[in-house]
Amino acid sequence: MKKTLTSIAIIIVLTSLIACTQIGESQEPYIYNGQTEVNVDGRIFKLEDLPKNMAEETVVNSFLYSIVADFDSKSEILADIESHKISIRNEEKGFNDGLYIKSYTIHEISTLSENEYNQEKLENSEPNPLYYYEWQKIVEKYNLKEYEIINVNFTQVHSETSIKLGSQWGDGTYNRSFIVGKSSNDNNFKIYDFGMM
């Protein structure tokens, strides 16, 4: 009887060890395999800081897809929200009319904790204190099961046509925070909010 119980205990322990080993092996470390520099018809994308996780890569791709004019791929990484659909249609129309960003250089990309994000908003003297916690509203509204706050420091240069017509955000270097998450209906990271520059 003791031998049988000992055998069962050993089998349970071995099964648990094998299961834990397989789980550990399936979680491979993140490695960025995307492009760091692209030049398409004089439109340039340059990445000076590599993304360190899939949420950061999703944001990087939003810049890249704008430069290469791949609006279908950009649409796939944006949450299925009406304002995003309108934004993509407007961006594609603008591109066809010569109104686009001619180059993006991403200097730094990082994942912020909620406290870091709130502190950054306070330091930048946002006029509305309620904006500090906008991420909470987005997480609740879209029932995000997992999310990250991604901050990007980048330089943009507009096309000549865009400059002549007076773009909303001119050439220059900006910081922008994105809310990137997975909803209960989707296992892929998507951009839910573009924040303010």
| Count of helical regions | 7
The CATH class assignment is: Alpha Beta
Sketch the major β-sheet.
6 strands, mixed
Please identify the structural class as seen in this structure.
alpha+beta
The N- to C-terminal Cα distance equals 71 Å
Rg of Cα set: 22 Å
Q: What is the share of helical residues?
A: 40-55%
Overall CATH architecture? Roll
Name the overall outline. Answer: globular
Uncertain runs: 7-14, 19-25
What is the arithmetic mean of pLDDT?
83
Whole-number count of domains: 1
Instruction: Name the beta content range.
Output: 25-35%
Order of helices and strands: HEEHHHEHHEHEE
Indicate the multimeric state. Answer: single chain
Biggest sheet, spatial arrangement of strands: 1-2-3-4-5-6
Stated plainly, the CATH topology is called Nuclear Transport Factor 2, Chain: A
Strand element count: 6
Explain what you see.
The chain has one domain (33-193): Nuclear Transport Factor 2, Chain: A (Roll), CATH 3.10.450. It has seven helices and six strands. The protein has helices at 2-26, 54-67, 71-77, 82-96, 114-123, 134-141, 160-164; strands at residues 37-40, 43-47, 101-112, 144-158, 172-183, 190-193. The chain has a six-stranded mixed beta sheet with strand order 1-2-3-4-5-6. The longest helix has 25 residues, at 2-26. The model is unreliable at 7-14 and 19-25 (pLDDT under 50).
